[in-house]
Amino acid sequence: MGDVNYFGTRDHYMFITYKDMIKLTYPVLLYDLVREYYDELKDLLELDKIKDFDIYNLERISVERLDINPLKYIKKPECSDETCDLLLKAFNEEMTHMYTHSRFSEFGSKLNTILPQERIKEFYIYVEEPAEQVIIDCSVYFKEFEHKIKYLTGDFINAVMCVPNKPTCYVLNDINYVHQLIEHKLIGYTEILIGELGCNYELDEDLGLKLKGLDENIIKDNVFKIGVTPVVTLRNEHFTQLDRSEFD
Q1: Is there a contact between 194 and 200 (Cβ–Cβ < 8 Å)?
Q2: In the prediction, which pLDDT does 7 show?
Q3: Could you tell me the sign of the dihedral formed by the alpha carbons of 190, 194, 199, 204, in that order?
Q4: Is the overall model pTM greater than 0.90, yes or no?
Q5: How far apart, in whole angstroms, are the C-alpha atoms of residue 243 and residue 217?
Q6: Which of 142, 199, 186, 165 is nearest to 18 (CA)?
């Protein structure tokens, strides 16, 4: 298996997904869809069920969502997954204000204490679509650490492979990224934190929750550490509109 002490004795090159793990962009996206695109989308998405939701309740359903694409959680049966993917891509590129208007996630709110640490040598911020607005947003909050930060876009594996130093630590919103790292043999001796989102879990044989597609043997054979981290700490204000959030 190798020297497990290696994990704690090195410099870190941290790779983090901007969405969910730095900023809570999707609650803002859903909020604006109801107010700006209701007529265009009401036949495709269950917007009536969230039209009275405030940002806190939208944060909750974003955490509960069963697919990484939040639109699939509220889609109507006649709306295909492919349509949801196309819509999300379009809105991610068009609704750039959602980046600056969104709140920090639990992990994102701690970055000003993480980035100054001497062992954090480089910090890779990843977003699939063009990163101009993400760069603008992050430069406001992390300007003094710009010498450490690099922005990555496009295909996930290509982004991982293009950096000069192999990431030692990942903070990810999507468990499927972990499986891609395993498939491409890029996961060895890394430490991973996965966001606590409904889409990252499945039921085990005892009907308990487990990370999708992972077990102790996979982790041991591929020599990596993995844990979970909350995206949002849910409080009373996140549960004020439960009666309207029954999604199939």
Answers
A1: yes
A2: 47
A3: positive
A4: yes
A5: 41
A6: 142
**DSSP code per residue over 100-128:** HHSPB-TTGGGHHHHTT-TTEEEEEEE-S
Cα atoms in the 13 Å half-sphere on the side-chain side of 17: 25
> Could you give the dihedral angle defined by the CA atoms of residues 95, 99, 101 and 102, in that order, rounded to the nearest 10 degrees?
120
CA distance linking residue 167 with residue 16, whole number of Å: 10
Which tokens in the block code for residue 212?
A: 């999708």
What's the whole-number mean pLDDT along residues 44-65?
95
Q: Which domains does the chain have, with CATH numbers?
A: 4-23+104-229 (3.40.50), 25-102 (no CATH)
Element (H, E) at 202: strand 201-203
DSSP letter at 75?
Answer: B
CB 213 within 8 A of CB 226: no
Which pLDDT score, from 0 to 100, does residue 130 have? 77
pLDDT tens string 181-230: 999 999 999 999 999 999 999 998 888 899 999 999 999 999 999 999 99
